[in-house]
Amino acid sequence: EYLNYTAFDMFCSFMFGTQMRTTSTVVSKDRDVMKSNAENEKFVSAVLAVFEKTNHLNLFPTEYIMAACLPFMKSSMYRDFEKEWDIVRDVGLTKIHNFIDRYDQDGLDEMERASYLAGAIRRQRSTKEVTESEMMELCLTALFVGVDTTSSVTAWNLMHLAINPEIQEKLYADLSAAVNERGSEGGTKLNADVLGRKASPYLHMCLRESHRVTPAFGRAMWKSNSRS
What is the dihedral sign for C-alpha 151, 155, 158, 164? Predict the structure, then answer.
């Protein structure tokens, strides 16, 4: 559950340029934050429920056919699926709508102006290659799939590190050296440069090996490399 909230917070910081702090317990006494977190938790719970029910429905595809051709005969599972998906859309699209409104009112801060969604708005309005509604749906999809997939991959990464303490130590040394050399605030804080492949090659090796051993999907994707 914690990793699911962490994944949501991470994707929100990328999508909106805002740290939602859903995983934070320190700020739980702030009523405004508690109210915001309630919506965030509602979104995350609905996302997980949609994935769970999708797995069930994929085993019994006739339920999809019945829902499409005979809507009055929808199964209880399919109705539950629709209910959770409506929550995902309601909460997610509301966040996106509110962001667009603030964008139009020039109410974004520096981080928000550098976010993916702000860039998507600029591209959509300059190129008109997709409609605003289509852009919103694409951003909602990214926010939706990021919660489950990211938390799953993160959990596997942490598990592999937990059962291989010598790898932990080597990774810690690799990251510490990168932070000292390229980190912000005098080499004390992580930043994008620290996490780059050139600065932290062992980090990327660990991530790739974890994904190779336990891929996010049942069927691994094969890719050639320089030694192939």
Answer: negative
Q: How many CA atoms lie within 13 A of 182 on its CB side?
A: 15
Q: Which structural domain range is residue 75 located in?
A: 2-147
Report d(CA 87, CA 80) in Å as an integer.
11
Judge if 40 and 140 occupy the same domain. yes
* DSSP codes joined into one string, 47-60: HHHHHHHHHHHHH-
Quick one: which of 43, 55, 53 has its CA closest to 5?
43
CB-based contact 11:146 (threshold 8 Å): yes
Looking at the predicted structure, is the pLDDT value of residue 27 above 60?
A: no
pTM above 0.85, yes or no: no
Q: How far is CA 113 from the centre of its chain?
A: 19
Tokens 């999708």 label which residue?
54
Amino acid occupying residue 14: F
**Do 126 and 37 fall into the same domain?**
yes
